[in-house]
Amino acid sequence: MTTWHAGPELLERYADGRADDVLAASVEAHLLACADCRGRVAAQVPAARLGANWDAVVATLDAPTPGPLERLLARSGLRASTARLLTATPTLRLSWLASIALALAFAAVAATRPGGAPLLFLALAPLVPVVAVAIAFNPSLDPSSEMVEATPVAGLRLLFLRTLASLGPSIVLAGVAGRLAADPGQSLALWLLPALALSALSLALASAVPIATAASALGVLWASGVVVAEAAARGSFAAVASGGEVESVLVHLPAQLLAGAVALFAAVLATRHSLQPGQPNRRHA
Amino acid sequence: MSTTIRFTDITKRFATTRALGGVTGTTGPGMTGLLGPNGAGKTTLLRILATVLAPDHGGVEILGLDPGDRQERTEIRRRLGYLPQEPGFHPRFTAFEFVDYVAILKELDDRRARHAEVHRVLEVVGLGDVAGKRIKTLSGGMRRRLGLAQALLARPEVLLLDEPTAGLDPEQRLRFRQLVSGEHGRTVVLSTHQTEDVATLCGRVLVLADGRVRFDGTPAQLASVASGRVWIADAEASRGAAVSWRTGDGRVRHVGNPPDAAEIATPTLEDGYLLLLHESRTRQQAA
Prior knowledge:
- By secondary structure, chain A is mainly alpha-helical.
- Chain A contains 15 helices and no strands.
- Chain A has helices at 8-16, 21-33, 35-44, 47-62, 68-75, 80-87, 94-112, 118-124, 127-136, 145-149, 156-180, 184-205, 211-234, 237-241, 253-274.
- By secondary structure, chain B is of the alpha/beta class.
- Chain B folds into 3 domains: 1-79 and 157-217, P-loop containing nucleotide triphosphate hydrolases (Rossmann fold, 3-Layer(aba) Sandwich); 87-155, no CATH class; 223-286, no CATH class.
- Helix content of chain B is 34%, strand content 27%.
- In chain B, the strands form 3 sheets. A 6-stranded mixed sheet of chain B has the order 5-6-7-3-8-9, sandwiched between helices.
- In chain B, helix 3 (95-105) crosses helix 4 (111-124).
- The two termini of chain B are 37 Å apart.
- The model of chain B has no long low-confidence stretch (mean pLDDT 87).
- Chain A binds chain B through residues 55, 58-59, 61-64, 79-81, 84-85, 88, 142-155, 158, 275-278, 284-285, and chain B through 14-15, 47, 50-54, 67-68, 70, 73-75, 77-78, 80, 82-84, 86-91, 94, 96-98, 100-102, 104-107, 109, 111, 114-116, 119, 131-132, 147, 150.
């Protein structure tokens, strides 16, 4: 029980928000213990200030709390709103990242085993970014896509952000897995350009067919292409199954340059398509 | 009255289905109702107007801008609010987070101003109290209103609502009507099955059937389509009645040719609409 009370002038300054931090803190400490002063101050706070303060409290309580990734992106200089758009991409969910990490780990283990198959890794690694892109742009996995598409940010900017958000992590994860595989120096150089080419092609084709179809078709084409090319280099399909170093044309410079050119061309196509309404994920057909 | 939306002879085809077969119309400020049976092309038309879908042929102009041009389309999207027929949500988002996410996509970049706007629209649709709740815990009606909240962000000049009252109970429907009728000077196009919504809200109604505009006028004009052709009788059967049904008082309402011993009744918008659909169907079968 306190016998001391805050003076009217002090309470008025506190109520108007004119008291400095130290003074305000001591008034607040007193108010907690003193019902009399609480009663007197309640009548003095201007209604507008009370309303604004209340709104600020509610806004703080309701405001989304950025996850660790979003905070990291924002801290590294990205605009907070852009960071939020990036992290809302379906592919950045932990479950998805965990599943590609697991798939790649299996491929890497298979490739590093004595007498293992670097070819398996070469066939699978470029498909990881393709699947990531297909997921990021698959409207059935983005329940809000219909609303999102009618916003001004939809189109080119969202295409870039989503592509970045899906290619980035999957390439990093596949890169790490590649380092663990038998042929650390060469593996990233081997599959990176094909991966970009396949991803860009999926996006470009998505203007004509659903992206999942485009990505699956390209995936099958790539995997069988790798096997056929390797069989051609070794002379028979039986020789492919025996494991060992990759010998096919895919490891040579012209094939890599071709992949780079395809990636560039398809990226331009995808960009052009994203400028049309109802693109790039044309599930309407 | 100025025109905010103009569409001329637009067609849209999905694989083998013709969704729109040459639709022409205009709307100005105020509420326009889009009535039509399922599969009439209402949703396709709204999606084209929302710039989500491009027509195969024909011209669209919204707020004097061409959605076929990239920059003009972005400008349209800045001034447009759209509630799709089936708004989907990330169930892990809270109501606030979801609307905030759409607000970012609507270029409300300033965090403080954006949060204030998110609060405003959530309050408007009566979801202020559940802003912090995860969407998966909200009821169907609440989700519907959440969809509406995002459409209201940044006070759009054009509001396109695809069946906004579907799944709402009568009280929620009333609340919705109060909500949209309070906004003057804005162009609102709403598609619906509820002739009641159109009768109470809209100054203008377009009836779409089988991919074509079958009627364009005021609700009173639509009702008068059935003028002199609505009958109340005690008997069930009727020669050539387009539609007939037993009403709550036990009598039978006929729209079309009069049955025996019938009294003529004042047509409602629903009578006009049903007769119009019946005649359009009959004409189609004859053709």
